[in-house]
Amino acid sequence: MKNTLPLGVDFAALRTLRLVFELRSFTAAATTLGVNQSAVSYTIDKLRRIFNDPLFFRLGGKVVPTERCEQIAQQASDMLDMFEAMISSATFEPAEADQTLSIACNHYERLVILPQVIRALRKQAPGLRLGQVNSTNQGPDLLKRGIADVLIGPIRPDEDGFYCRTILAERYCCIMDPSNPLASGELTKDAYTAANHLTVNYGGDWRSRFLVDLENDGRKLNEVIQIPSPAGLDELLPGTDLISTLPVRLAQPLAKRLALRPCPYPGEFEIHMVWTARTHHSPMYGWFRDLVVDTIRQSLKREPEPGCLI
Predict the structure, then answer these.
(1) Fewer CB within 10 Å: C terminus or N terminus of the chain?
(2) Are 182 and 191 in contact (CB under 8 A)?
(3) Looking at the domain covering 6-87, what would its CATH class be?
(4) What is the pTM of this model?
């Protein structure tokens, strides 16, 4: 391959390279960038000539980077992050902000965390706009693609390139019609597994922690009905013998119509806030992350003792 002038590389081309490398897909990179796939292919071809390397090849229908590409992609990522930090304002004035932030989260965070964060934002940074996208179990990928700036949820990536702060701890409880015989007295493991369950699978291949603990104990639920979201459980459970298992803070607002009982498999888990190097050094995003943590910590101080939640 004939080498061309290295200064012909711009940041847009490097971002395209990083996206193809992270997503292992020309099509997904094009979708993220909002361009045609041919534009991505053209950019990669230009970079192939500049770096005198194939960069990517197809193997078994998959896009695979060369060893040289892996080095270039890491260096390009570092350069892009450094440049973004360079052009970011050294200070951030919440009252004057008019930017847009994107949060990836799901049903739990949208009901438990976002309302409090939005109230704090309206008071401190009324010009700041907030967008929310469903993360399902693809949150880390949304961060890599730049679709989301912050991920809030139970997923804590263990790969390099992610930063994380733990927001709160949570556990599961059982909800049912108040007339259900299981609504009074201790709910034993045997009674729990033998009961008729309406389970929430949250879509995708996500596995709730209490189900993992139950299976590790060699047990299995008697699942009668499965639904993808907890929405509407206060309409589905009354007048039936079904019970459901939900995180305590999701179940608590349903206590007016349903009975809440401790779950014999509480499945403790944590909610995290995750971001990447792209926003790590930004004063605005740093301020926002602090706002989320401080807001939730203040709300936790107002909560009753854990044993009083159910």
Answers:
(1) N
(2) yes
(3) mainly alpha
(4) 0.75
